[in-house]
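Re-run with default settings, no changes from the original entry. Doing this only to confirm the output is reproducible before filing.
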Amino acid sequence: MNGYHIVDRSLWLYTSGTGAFTMAIGGVLMFRGYSNGNIILILGMIIVIWTMKEWWKDVIRESTFIGEHKIKVKQGIKYGGIIFIISEVLFFVSFFWAFFHSSLTLTIEIGAKWPLIGIESMKAYGVPLLNTIILLSSGATATWAHNALIIGNRKDLIVGLILTVLLGILFTAIQGMEYFESSFTISDSVYGSTFYVTTGFHGLHVLIGTTFLIVVLFRCINHQFTRHHHYGYEYAAIYWHFVDVVWIVLYVTIYWWGS
């Protein structure tokens, strides 16, 4: 109707809300030390993952196989994607704001020193620099795969996406190792809080972006993208480049300047 696609009635709004609420309850119980908190949290995660799978499958069917995503629908999806990225930028601005407020307005309560006395900060030229190289390399392979899709080079498209996914997984694994070997925790004053909240949420975004790219990879293998119809890939690539940019700012401010 008038170029717009009216979606069918769906349960996924309800199941996603139920899963998110269950995860929140499970997380609170887990942090409060209740033994059943982990089970409830995992149950919520299962509901959310299952909902994502089914919801994405419906969207793929509507766009690729039924052809319901006309020009106006694509424009609406693009505007929604842009607004979402802007909201993510503001999300990280709040964390950087907290970091700079704490580090630039030193008070006697935190020892008038940054990093705080007794805290051994991460060395910027060690593991963080390696992770920077890995993440920037993944951005290059994602762009390579995108260009291959535009020119119709299917082999380079698949190889580029596989490399991007592997580099994203490697980044997450190294960050987990960094957390495990760190000499301070999230409860070590404001430095530990700002460090782990900022880097941790970025790591979460890397996991989300890696998931997007895995879905895109399987869609490419199944010939669901063309040179002129591949917004799903474009948005995954834009999201991944956004993660790259946030990491550069994070590395320069928290790892290099902040240490």
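Residues 186 and 192 are 4 Å apart (CA to CA). Helices lie at 12-31, 37-65, 71-104, 127-151, 154-181, 189-221, 231-257.
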